[in-house]
Amino acid sequence: MKVGRVIGNLTLSHADSGFRGGRFIVLSPQGKEELSATPPGGLSKHPSMVAYDNMGAGIGDDILYVEGAEAMQPFDYRTPVDAICVAILDRYEYAPPSAGAA
Amino acid sequence: MILARVDGHAISSLGHPSLKAQRIVLCTPINEDGIDAGLPIAALDPIGAGRHSRVFITTDGSWTQNTVHDESSPIRNQIMGLVDTK
Question: pTM, whole model, 2 decimals?
Answer without folding.
Answer: 0.91
